């Protein structure tokens, strides 16, 4: 029997996420409360986090050619056979469920065992649960955007690129907790761009993809590695942004070059228009 190609497996993974996302959105109703558990990073889990993780594990691990499934919501990697590894943040920004604001689902497909480097990614993308459900998929050097509704997936834009004229910024963490060099950089950015911060990385990153600018969840005085997770958030988002013509950085190098040492490690995340990332790296030098 001929082995399934990686490209065919990636097609199947993208299809499954596109088909499951409207179901996840629907399933949020009645699952907005917290459960008495924490995820491996110590975040309080919402019922929907655990449910969406189970649903995605079920669907993604049964795809022929998927060898590993891992998510931000479970400590260990699930082994599911031979093939690529899928790393997922089932509900990014799930603390927004309480206030009924935007959230997302993030995925990265690595042609290597986890934890894996950004250079091993073969595809990555995200679903944004906004007023409409949209999906951005980066693979083979291009980013495409879709609108999802029931079983329908319509292309909204092919070859998405971050606009040259930057307009918005959004930075996480408490301002007094920002290191001085980052705070000085923010002073400059505030003079040039307009603040957009909603508290869910995917929603905030999608503002940057749409209008140009910069999103960051930086290193903090109290947390030198920031808050976001390398494998589930930093690398996949860095890949989407870089494929769309932007840049990503942990403060000194592309997020795709950061060496992963453990599955749930955190990393400072800065993504957006190339010129803003260049200036950030000079400011943090
Ligand atoms: P959440 O804890 O709600 O899942 O993934 C972590 C994340 O959200 C990001 O989506 C978001 O950018 C960030 O944390 C928000 O953190 P703050 O509450 O500190 O702003």
Task: Give an account of the 3D structure.
This protein is of the alpha+beta class and 285 residues long. It is built from six helices and 15 strands. α1 (6-27) packs antiparallel against α2 and α3 (180-192) runs antiparallel to α6. The radius of gyration is 18 Å and the shape is globular. The structure holds 2,6-di-O-phosphono-beta-D-fructofuranose. The site of 2,6-di-O-phosphono-beta-D-fructofuranose has 14 residues, from loops.
The count of DSSP E runs of length 2 or more, i.e. the number of strands, is: 15
What structural class results from the helix and strand content? alpha+beta
Contiguous low-pLDDT stretches (5 residues minimum) are none
Helix content: 25-40%
Radius of gyration over C-alpha positions, nearest whole angstrom = 18 Å
Distance between the amino and carboxyl termini? 54 Å
For the largest beta-sheet, the strand count, sense and barrel status come to: 8 strands, mixed
**Ions and ligands:** 2,6-di-O-phosphono-beta-D-fructofuranose
Which quaternary structure do these chains form?
A: single chain
Count the DSSP helices: 6
Strand content: 25-35%
What are the secondary-structure elements, in order, as H or E? Answer: HEEHEEEEEEEEEHEHEHEEH
User: Averaging pLDDT over every residue, what do you get?
Assistant: 96
Strand order of the largest sheet: 4-3-5-6-7-8-9-10
The shape is: globular
